[in-house]
Amino acid sequence: MAKKVFSGIQPTGEVHVGNYVGAIRNWIKLQDTYESIYCVVDYHSITIPYDAKLLPQRVLDLGATLMACGLDPEKAILFVQSSVPEHTELTWLLTTITSIGSLERMTQFKDKSSRQKGNIFAGLMSYPILQTADIIMYKADLVPVGEDQVQHLELAREITRRFNTSFGQYFPEPQPLLTSGAKVMALNDPTAKMSKSIEGSYITLTEDPDSIRKKIRRAVTDPGPQGGEMGPGVNNLFVLLEAFAPADLTEQFRDDYSQGKLRYSDLKNTLAEAIVEYTEPIRERRSELLGKPAELKEILAVGGDKARKQARETIRDVREMMGFQMPVR
Ligand code: TYM
Question: What backbone phi and psi angles, to 5 degrees, belong to 204?
Answer without folding.
Answer: -90, 165
